[in-house]
Specification:
It contains 3 helices and no strands. It is mainly alpha-helical and 77 residues long. It has one domain. Keywords: Membrane, Transmembrane, Transmembrane helix. InterPro entries: TAXIMIN_1/2.
């Protein structure tokens, strides 16, 4: 059995839950930043920094998924 064969890691999932909760709160901040960035890009579409702000916000929104994937990958079957 290789590493790709074992997809079910409940211990990693349970250990990652508190950190996923914190990442979820960070993603809420990311949603707010994303909304502000979209509004700013509508007002001034020539600003390149707004595009970078929106990209960072999207990564913040995806944070809980990245945290859970990392935790489940660290725990062996």
């Amino acid at each position: 059995m290789g590493d790709g064969d074992c997809e079910c890691r409940p211990l990693g999932f349970l250990l990652g839950l508190p950190f996923a909760l914190l990442a979820f709160l960070v993603s809420l901040v990311g949603i707010l930043v994303w909304i502000v960035g979209i509004l700013l890009s509508c007002i001034c579409p020539c600003c390149i920094c707004v595009t970078v702000l929106v990209e960072v916000a999207l990564e913040l929104i995806k944070a809980p998924l990245h945290v859970m994937k990392w935790f489940t990958s660290q725990i062996p079957c």
